[in-house]
Specification:
67 residues; mainly beta; Ubiquitin-like (UB roll); 1 helix
Length: 67
C-alpha cells in the first residue's frame, strides 16, 4: 500500500503500524522528532499501536539546534 512520508510516496506492507513504518525508514532511534498523520500529531508512546491506512500522509519533523 502507498503512504506519503513528507510528501514522498512510500510503499509499505499491508496494515503497517506507524512504528514499523518509521522503523523501516530508520527513524525510530532518533530523538527530537515529532510525527503527525494526516495533520494530527501522534505521541511517541502511541506509535506501536497506531494503524496506518492507504494514502495516509505522515509528516516527520526533526528538531534542530541553532541560534
Amino acid at each position: 500500500m502507498t503512504l506519503f512520508v513528507n510528501d514522498k510516496p512510500h510503499e509499505a506492507p499491508d496494515a503497517p503500524t506507524l512504528f514499523t513504518t518509521l522503523e523501516a525508514l530508520a527513524l525510530t532511534p532518533l530523538r527530537g522528532i515529532a510525527v503527525a498523520v494526516n495533520d494530527e500529531v501522534v505521541a511517541r508512546p502511541d506509535w506501536p499501536d497506531f494503524q496506518l491506512r492507504p494514502q495516509d500522509r505522515i509528516t516527520v519533523i526533526r528538531a534542530t539546534q541553532g541560534g
